[in-house]
Amino acid sequence: MKDLLQGTRVLDLTRLLPGPYATLLLADLGAEVIKIEEPVRGDPVRSLPPFHEGKSARFLTLNRNKKSLSVDLKKPKGVDLFLKLAESSDVVIEGFRPGVTRRLGIDYDAVKERNSEIIYCALTGYGQVGLYRDHIGHDLNYIARAGLLSLTGSSPVIPGVPVADLAGAMFAALSVVAALRARDYGQGGTFIDVSLTDAVISWMAVHFAEYFPTEKVPNPQELVLTGGFPCYAIYETKDKKYLAIGALEEKFWANLCNALGRPEYIPLQFSQGMKETIFCDLREIFKKRPRDAWLDELNPNEIPVSPVLDLSEVAKNPHVHSRGLMRGEPISEVAFPVRWSEAHEKEDRPAPNLGEQNWEILREIGYPDNEIESLKREHVI
């Protein structure tokens, strides 16, 4: 945990993955993130397996360095509590469907009346405006509409990670930090509209840059970066494992061809007519030896080659550990992936129990103990 955003209070109204990942990034950078959860159940991720000592491993990872305030936002006193807390906050991040926060009375306009400097970020699948605004969906739907699935193979293949969820989360966190910086220069608060679909389309900017001049829809089997040529592809080895070859540059392709005893392929790197012949030959060559034997031979020869690792191999990888990426209690987890030379490091805090900081937070914003007890009896908290 860093101290770069120390003194910044974030109210986190999100659940599941996109929003909690965005606020995790802010929390890891030192912001005080208060996770607003419904009483009794809390974030549904709390109930998702696998569990460590009765707690969801997913929840523990996504919600470290955060505080938990359980409050029923469907009750007037719950809304009043939230708005009072917003008066002393810097950021609100919500992931409800468009219109829900307005019905609850906690939308940007309502919060802005109490705190004109608030930065309010709404993170949704299709955004606050547009034809698909009210459409429901999940990551698969968003990457489909963004065009990403059309580029994943000869037929659409679902990626192994939720691309839209994580892309949207990163744009949300980046936009919040930018808005905080702008506010420091006197620009005041703002409303931020982040669409998961928009985020994925933005990540495909280069693909669209190539499409617009010609209006030719790309065929993934003809694209270099989707494995359309032998120089940039995945090959199975003798032990049923895989190698990733990324020899895009001419010199690296030449190094590979020479190492494999196929110098005649050097001028044919991007030959449409010969690529299938070369593919077939290289596939047979790589099947003759185990993966790690190939790595030992190819790595010293200036060839961009890497093993296709599974999660257990990554978790044990000495390079990953040398970067400090696997750490934490009560279980190992992936740390914030950026290193600073000067930022102060603080010990990570484990994810909170549901409502763990209720009393601490309510006392801080002026609620007397007897009123907190009353809110508890009335099931507001």
CATH domain topology of the largest domain: Rossmann fold
Largest sheet: 6 strands, parallel
> How many separate domains make up the residues?
2
Order of helical and strand elements: EHEEEHEHEHHEHHEHHEEHHHEHHEEHH
First-to-last CA distance: 29 Å
- Oligomeric state as shown: single chain
Overall morphology: elongated
Mean pLDDT: 95
CATH architectural label of the largest domain = 3-Layer(aba) Sandwich
Rg calc: 25 Å
Fraction of residues in β-strands: 5-15%
Give the helix level as a range of percent. Answer: 25-40%
Number of helices: 16
Highest CATH level, the class of the largest domain: Alpha Beta
Characterise this structure.
By secondary structure, the chain is an alpha/beta fold. The chain has 2 domains: 9-203 and 326-377, Rossmann fold (3-Layer(aba) Sandwich); 221-236 and 242-307, formyl-coa transferase, domain 3 (2-Layer Sandwich). Helices cover 37% and strands 14% of the residues. The protein contains 16 helices and 13 strands. The protein has helices at residues 18-28, 57-62, 76-87, 100-104, 108-114, 139-145, 163-184, 196-203, 205-211, 250-259, 275-286, 291-298, 311-316, 318-322, 358-364, 369-377, and strands spanning 9-12, 32-37, 51-52, 55-56, 66-70, 91-94, 119-124, 190-195, 232-236, 242-246, 305-307, 326-327, 333-334. The protein has a 6-stranded parallel beta sheet with strand order 5-2-1-6-7-8. Strands 9-10-11 form a 3-stranded antiparallel beta sheet, covered by helices on one side. The radius of gyration is 25 Å and the shape is elongated. It starts with 8 loop residues before the first strand and ends with a helix.
